[in-house]
Amino acid sequence: MDVYGLLGNPVGHSLSPPMHEVAYDELDMDARYVTFEPEAIGPAIEGANALGISGLNVTIPFKEDALSHVEPDSLAEHIGAVNTVDFSAPDDSVPTGHNTDAEGARRAFERHGVSRDGASAVVVGAGGAARAIAFMLADDGATVEIANRTVSRAESLAADVDGASAHGLDELPGLVSGADVLVNATSVGMESDESPVPATALHGDLAVMDAVYSPLDTRLLREASARGATTIDGAWMLLFQGVAAFELWTGKDAPVERMDAALRRRL
Predict the structure, then answer these.
(1) What is the mean pLDDT of the chain?
(2) CB-hemisphere CA count at 13 Å for 238?
(3) At 256, is the secondary structure helix, strand, or coil?
(4) At 232, is the pLDDT very low, low, confident or very high (cuts 50, 70, 90)?
(5) 111 a known binding residue?
(6) Which residues of this UniProt protein bind NADP(+) (predicted)?
(7) N or C of the chain: less Cβ packing under 10 Å?
């Protein structure tokens, strides 16, 4: 049996196990997906390697610390965070580290027919999700504007992303009114019915992705839809980061529709 899993703390709320296990069932794979809550990431990765674990996802608070315990690919190294570890390297080799958050966001846009090449994109937030999304947008040819409550954090991220600029949240109305793509990469909208962007700045030529997936129908997406914008809920990025990890580990095409259905049944 192949064993995959998730490292984080806490992970009791995770939606990854049902999403991956339905894929194993669909493809008749002898595999399980389990969760772990270690105290430290280094010993956990070392132990998983010794036990013959096939692959691990990594989530909060370990994504950045995991980088120093794997051989990261160039994207994970640029983003500065690892969310997927692959143990398929030869014996005694260091496991490889990857970041499928960026690929998850990319496939979410592709699923909705949203082009990034030549687009003007606004990313709200400067944390881990924002880093992955900003790098993806720049790699795909977008001009990226990063707006954050703490401007120094936006400036730090913008310095790492080709062609990006940093802004405060007070500049959002002007930025969004002229943008093609808007991404909320903060938690605003998760705990309360709030939007990080004034509704008056939204417009029908905009594609809006909200990284918040609980609730799915956030105030930002409701107000964007009312203005005629294309909307992408947070479950799509969550789904496709898992799809990318599954395909990296197994070399098989993921049963995307079954994984999507399993995920959305629990949201």
Answers:
(1) 96
(2) 25
(3) helix
(4) very high
(5) no
(6) 125-129, 148-153, 211, 234
(7) N
